[in-house]
Amino acid sequence: MAAAAAARWSPGGRWALCLCLCAALLPRPARGLTDRLYCGRRVCYEVLGVSRQASKAEIARAYRQLARQYHPDRYRGEPAGGEGGGAQAAHEKFLLIAAAYETLKVYKQEQEEELKKKMAIDPRWKRYRRWMKNEGPGRLTFIDD
Hints:
By secondary structure, the chain is mainly α. The protein has helices at about 1-10, 10-25, 45-50, 55-70, 85-120, 125-135. About 60% of the residues lie in helices and about 0% in strands.
């Protein structure tokens, strides 16, 4: 029995066990969610053709223009020399544009809410709001910090 235990825990057996455990614990890429997560494999800002600093109005304007162009009911088709795909490709592009807009709309809304929460807590903003409410920019006042 002692010989069997010694053979099982020999240096070669330990390395094999360590390798099996390491292989089992290695992180694997998540493939199930990447297809529909954040506009597939593309960046939502690039799908809509706007910069990362774009405002909500610019994002909405870009979405409306692209949606008008690729909407399945309004799509007129491409000329014979076009890059192909037809109505099905336009429908897929429209779905990608819609997903990008929804993702960015929610993201920008969360950014605004986070900023409002920070401003509500910050004493400097409280003082500014109180000043605007009571005196406003009409009078010159000095506030000692």
